[in-house]
């Protein structure tokens, strides 16, 4: 059951965090770079973040810490997206 929970946290919350991070980075980079380059750079950085998120999801031993970390990151990225608009 814990392995299934880790898979859900790793891939579902990882996807949500990655998508919010990509949107935030695209908004931030759009002001200083052309649109195509900002999207490409945001996507590349988000893919690296997703890989690190999935690896760390299986390295963190405590399920409570893993849940708090993933929900906290998702909430922070959502709040940042809400502020940047």
What order do the SSEs take from the amino end to the carboxyl end, as H and E? HHH
Q: How widely separated are the two ends?
A: 38 Å
Q: How much strand?
A: under 5%
**Structural class of the helix and strand makeup?**
mainly alpha
Mean pLDDT: 94
Unreliable segments of 5+ consecutive residues: none
Q: How many distinct beta strands? A: 0
Number of individual domains: 1
Q: How would you describe the shape?
A: elongated
Number of helices: 3
The radius of gyration over CA amounts to: 14 Å
Helix content: over 70%
* Biggest sheet details: none
3D structure, described in words:
There is one protein chain. This protein is mainly α. The chain has one domain (about 1-85). The protein is built from three helices and no strands. The protein has helices at about 1-30, 35-60, 65-85. The chain starts with a helix and ends with a helix.
In short:
By secondary structure, this protein is mainly alpha-helical.
Topology:
Elements: H1 2-30, H2 35-59, H3 63-84
Helix pairs in contact: 1-2, 1-3
């Amino acid at each position: 059951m814990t392995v299934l929970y880790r898979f859900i946290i790793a891939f579902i919350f990882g996807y949500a965090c990655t998508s919010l991070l990509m949107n935030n980075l695209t908004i931030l980079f759009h002001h200083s770079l052309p649109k195509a380059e900002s999207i490409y750079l945001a996507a590349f950085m988000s893919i690296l973040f997703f890989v690190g998120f999935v690896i760390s999801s299986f390295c963190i031993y405590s399920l409570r810490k893993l849940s708090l970390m993933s929900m906290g990151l998702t909430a922070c990225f959502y709040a940042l997206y809400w502020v940047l608009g």
